[in-house]
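Suppose you are handed a protein chain with no further information: no name, no annotation, nothing but its sequence. What can you learn? This example shows the usual starting point.
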Amino acid sequence: MESAPPPLPVAPTAYRVADLRIDVTHRRVTRAGTEITLSDLSFDLLLELTRAAPNVVSFEQLMQRVWPRLVVGPETISQRVKVVREALASCGGSVALAEELKHPASSHMPVFEPEGWPRRA
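A reasonable first move is to predict its three-dimensional structure. Written in structure tokens, the prediction is:
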């Protein structure tokens, strides 16, 4: 008698696209094996964009999810996106990925694959 496959975790513990890996459990980002240092806020922003990908995330959604108890405007979000983009680009690798972050409310993010989960169809 075959047993059922194990259930999928409630949330992925890591995401990967191209040479970028986001380790949710340890709150680490690596690109081609090189660790990228991000502040907690920058990590939270990158993770929120990753989880929503490939969907567009509005500035309002980002304000609610990344800055839940603060009042911030689109300029604050744009500046934080710039910080994340620069950090991703500083380690080399795919420039296109960093470019996708230029305007998160108006462009599509690449699809990040949750590690350990079946591939998306």
